[in-house]
Amino acid sequence: MSRLPRWDPEGTRLPIKLDTATNGEFAPVPLPDIVTRARREALRRADAGARRLGLDRRRFLVSACGAATSLLALNDAFAAGGPRGGFYDVPAEAALDADAAAAAVSGSEFIFDVQGHHVNPQGGWRKRSNAWEEILAGFPWAECGERDPVACFSAEQFVREVFLDSDTDLAVLSFVPEPDLASVPLSMREADATRALVDRLEGSRRLLLHGPVQPNFPGELDRMQALASGFTIAAWKTYTQFGPDGRGFWLDDEETGIPFLERARALGVRVVCVHKGFPIAGMDRAHAACDDVARAARRFPDLHFIVYHSGYETQTRERAFDAAAGRAGIDSLVRAVREQGIAPGGNVYAELGSTWRFLMRDPDQAAHALGKLLRYVGEDNVLWGTDSIWYGSPQDQIQAFRSFQIAEPLRERYGYPKLTPALRAKVLGLNAARPYAIAPEEIRRHQAGDALGRTRAAYAEAPDPSFATYGPRTRREFLRLRHPRG
Known about the structure:
The protein has 19 helices and ten strands. It is α/β, with parallel strands linked by helices. It has two domains: 33-107 and 462-485, no CATH class; 112-447, TIM Barrel. The chain has an eight-stranded parallel β-sheet with strand order 2-3-4-5-6-7-8-9, sandwiched between helices.
């Protein structure tokens, strides 16, 4: 597999790449000053650490010590303001001790990323409007060593960032909502070609596919039949906020949601993934709430409902759950499952794509968000997702999660669990095995000797990650990206 030339030889990017990039569904939020200062301090410490170890800064940052140094700088910046609700459990010696750093940020867990994305750079969607070419060609965030900036989002780039530059074992390729099949950035057939690309690398079932469905558009239920007949569909993906003239739908409404769920059941694909939270600009904000998921889950106990993004919203600060407050965000999901009597371990799951990536920069919010999900949705029902390739390689999200800890005072006061290695392993991959009906040990047994595994092992001897992100980083870029779709 060919590799693009890397474009950060001087080590100007950090391995824990906290910036304002988004997945394109929500507007970028400026970094808090405390995080900006922590990033500057991390680069200063990287210079010092590299000199101590006789390395250039780039080689130091690529090492486990580089990730540990970045997380330690974040810890120190936040600790300066007093006791924190969450922190990265990285020992000080990890900044210079490779073994200590590896113990903090490395691991051997089975990692199953249930939300990945890419686009087809040669797709017909680019020909639909000349605006796409004008907008994408000028994006500074789309630089990846290719003349065509859209190639940064290609299938090959996705495989490289996810399966070589991160520890991910298995991923699900998902979709953005677009009922006009001529305009989708990634069609079902193109997604299947990506799966075939992985198969040609003897990927041993490393990539699963969603079936995109917007049941509030004409003909979508019939298309479900065609998708299930023509492709191996692991789950259905829908957006309740999205619809004609900006009108969404509820999963339990009799005209749209119930026929969709009944068709899913009839077709034998019983995993339903639904975007909640992150209100999509121009769409129906009310349908970002999670109430309908819990009602539908109670009515369809034989289906698995995966709440993408866990209902999180950047406008709502996460804190301890308060049933009387009526807050949006993750409280919406917690409130919904409690009101419908769906106990932890039931058929509702919380997914972390973009949510964890955003919360990494705020340990207090991260502690409450993870604590609430693990307590109320269940330690077996929080699923790992990263929304990559929008954020480049998900390795930094993995490393940060491996080392994150909820502070003991919050655990004692609110009943949040301690993040043990066993619990982290559940979230990182084992929990998703249940709804997706896979056997992690079987997957890993096949992967151990496949061609992609061999390539990965050889690459690990001299890794060369980009530490790049690809989503829009400013409001201007965000609005330019959204313009062709209205």
